[in-house]
Amino acid sequence: MAAKSKSKSTPVETALVLPRHADIKETEVSSVELVDTHTHVASTFEAYRAKYPEGAHTTIKSFVKALLMSDETNKLSAVVDVWCEAPLKAEWLETVDSLGELKEEGLSYSFVVGAHPHEAKEYTDELEETFKKAHAHPLCVGWGEIGLDYHYDNSPREIQQAVLRRQLRTALASGLGKAITIHTREADDDIYTILTEELPKEQRIHVHCFTDSLEVAVKLLDHFPNLYIGITGVITYSSNLNTSQVVRHLGEKATPSSPSALRLVLETDAPYMLPSTMGPPSSFGMTSKQKLPFAHSAVLPWTAAFVAKVLNEREMPEGEAPWTTEDVLRVARENARKVYGV
Question: In the chain, pLDDT over 90 holds for what percent of residues?
Fold first, then answer.
């Protein structure tokens, strides 16, 4: 029996298993692979346990299998988990090894590790050694999320800059050739300067949850041919116009039959960034006053559908079909392979 929720505003636990998105409902599941390139699995599980203290799932592995691997939902093929706390959570190794076992059941789990800019003031030699060991783990596909956040300034800006440079140099010095996951917010000039000074042009980069200016996006895309823009559910928010502007720019030279210019990947940043376009609560077994208490990787198709809508604002070349949700999911899936090898 599903556990009851803590309050009337929290839906029953079964509502967390999302129905397959309408745009991919009639398609064979195997033809559309969903890849979440940026999610915080441990934090999402913590959010679940906080909302459902008597919930059915007492382990992260059970939680992931139920929400992301069910045949009834938007089944995930791969996730890139993010460990960016300082200090690194004690359970990281046990968790990644446990979730890595899910590959035998159809879910490819990998992770990135690094110090978030909010945590820059906590960066130490000891922490760096821990990150270096984690970075060498066979399931680790990158260093991140690292970068600059001038919106909150939880760490002084000069410390953020110094720690970003240090982490970039450490990642390159490892010789492992893994990707870099970048967090940037309201730091356009400094992020461009630091990345172009510290990284080789061919470096594989994922600029996560992009919400900054089109100008800096174009500069980064032009300088780094293997840089991809991360799109989360925040693209659906009326308060954020920048992300759609970047998608329009990427779509100017891309079509469903020739999509290589569409240099984006899809991500959830779960448990954050729930898309605002999920539809009426009743379609998820909720009352009109309820909403999903957190995002998880199975919300990806709603973000993809919005991206397709934005791409279709331009007049398509003669003979070219409009973008579909499935088209966007396929392009994003291939780009995830290019960035992270997943």
Answer: 91
Domain, as residue range, for 288: 33-340
The answer to the question of residue 24 being in a domain is no
Q: Which two tokens stand for residue 68?
A: 């992301």
What is the pTM (predicted TM-score) of this model? 0.95
What one-character DSSP code corresponds to residue 342? -
- Beta carbons within 8 Å of 123's beta carbon, 6+ residues apart: 86, 115, 159, 163, 166, 167
Max Cα–Cα distance, the chain, nearest Å:
59
List Cα–Cα distances, 55 to 1, 17, 30, 47, 103, in angstroms: 10, 13, 30, 12, 25
pLDDT tens track for 95-114: 999 999 999 999 999 999 99
Q: Are strands 76-83 and 227-231 parallel, antiparallel or unpaired?
A: unpaired
CA 241/CA 238 separation, integer angstroms: 7
Are 325 and 301 contacting, i.e. CB atoms less than 8 angstroms apart? yes
On whether residue 116 sits in a domain, the answer given is: yes
H or E element that contains 206: strand 205-208
Helix (H, G, I), strand (E, B) or coil at 290: coil
Cβ atoms within 10 Å, residue 94: 11
